């Protein structure tokens, strides 16, 4: 079954929606990471990473990957609909194509940030697990003695 123009359009619209969702999740994951560091400093002890930080990091990364994959599908569909001609030739650039392309570039950048957010969440949790029960602040270590 060949793709219809409406399915190509729906795919082109899904890409920016996923890219914006990826940006929001990546920003929230970084916010939660900073909050975790602040909470540990305030408590002067190592704390476990919240599940929300893991969820937002993985969700942002997943949405960015899905946006890039959908863009590849969009390009395949648009080339098929144009009879094999290059759909991205200057005379064939449409608003939906431009929107999908810009959104995919954004999603690719967020993919890198999302990868760092996933790594940071796991790194913070590993540090908290390795130092469970130890004080984080020097003053807390002296007062514990």
From TrEMBL:
Keywords: Membrane, Transmembrane, Transmembrane helix. The chain crosses the membrane at residues 55-76, 97-121. The keyword Transmembrane helix applies. This is DUF202 domain-containing protein.
